[in-house]
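Reopening this one. Same input as before:
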Amino acid sequence: MGAESDRDEWIARAQRGEARAVARLISWIEDGSPSVPYVMERLAATTGLAQVIGLTGAPGVGKSTTTSALISAYRARGTRVGVIAVDPTSPFSGGALLGDRVRMQEHATDDGVFIRSMASRGHLGGLAATTPQAVRVLAAAGCTVVLIETVGVGQSEVEVAGTADTTVVLLAPGMGDGIQAAKAGILEVGDIFCVNKADRDGADNTVREVRHMISLAEHDPYAWEPSVVKSVASKADVGDLLAAIDAHQAWLLADGHLQQRRERRAAEEITALAIARVRQRVRDVAPGLLATLAAEVAAGTKDPYSATDLLLDQIT
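Same output, byte for byte:
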């Protein structure tokens, strides 16, 4: 990664929107490069410049197709779009199993679109742990809209709500998604519920079911009431979804809602980074002590709280 001047050059090129430089910075983030804190410091002023939209839902609901259709809709407005498509991790290479160009081929040659597949690397919640930092890079590169498509694992995919300004939960008719949403707690994290593949039988029933569940949930009278819309992403019919996203963005910009949401997001990110540093310190400084304390706790000769205190005293 070279000297500080080399890093500055890559950062400057990324800020000019050069795809190769953007890819380089995101690779540094994924690989845990020691240059990342410096990069994040230089890009701090760009935080919050992009509208971040998360798309989640069970496998088969059409997340990639919907993402592609939204890219086209935003590009028609002249908007520069960044996409982070989080994929399952290959057990062999540690990389993403699916490639971005395979999934969204029609946008591969558009200079106004940057698409990056990121491996989840075992991180639960449908996202990669490095997703928030990658969003910052895309914002710095001039992407005013960033779409985050989650892994598609189903009931664990609630973490995207902590990363996105607007969370879209995609459903499909005939898949029991309404019931699954209730089980998963997705009802609490979705700002917009979109029944995709709405040209299939049962779409109206799915819409009614989701609206009924929303009506049963407790809502703060001053909070956003989730929207329920339909789409046929395979035919680029995402007008109602786009209108719902616009409406939610307008609501966020009123009365400080966006700032509050982003402050909560920043708090979670800081906490996650702090926890990661503690884990690294344990591995670097006290691996033997951890093993000893674990054996004592398992044997019942020491309680886990006093063991934790001893470990923290050692690494701080």
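So the earlier flakiness isn't reproducible anymore. For the record, DSSP finds 13 helices and seven strands in the chain.
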